[in-house]
User: Fold this.
Amino acid sequence: MGMSVFPVFNPKLTGVKFEAEGKLLFDQFETLDAIAETIEVARFSSFGDDRPIPEDFDGDEEDLEAALGPWDEWYSPVEGLKTMVALLDAIAEEPDFADQLDDCEHVVEELTEMKTCLEAAVEQGAQFRLELAP
Assistant:
């Protein structure tokens, strides 16, 4: 059992749903961020809650949410789409990037699923953000 990352949309999308588990995206987000930095696009994780964890915090996830307070930031699906397309292109075109990923084929499947949802968000005028779930 591990964490998953998935997109949330505001307003909710119609006609499309994120059909991936998101576990590989969570497991590989540091590598995806490194690839994004190398190809000079927004980091994969930059579309999620990146508020710093207080230095003295030692509780669990529920306590962290209470300590940080509500999070209501949303991002442009156009910007998210640029990152997902750039990552997919870089992985397809540069074997070194693909080699850095564990289970590259399935990471690409999850990124492609994210891309499909972001394309729909652009069409439907929805904002998005990445959230985590156990």
Q: What stands out?
A: The two ends are 8 Å apart (CA to CA). The chain has a mean pLDDT of 91. The helical segments are 23-27, 29-38, 61-68, 77-93, 95-100, 104-124. The chain has one domain: 4-48+57-133.
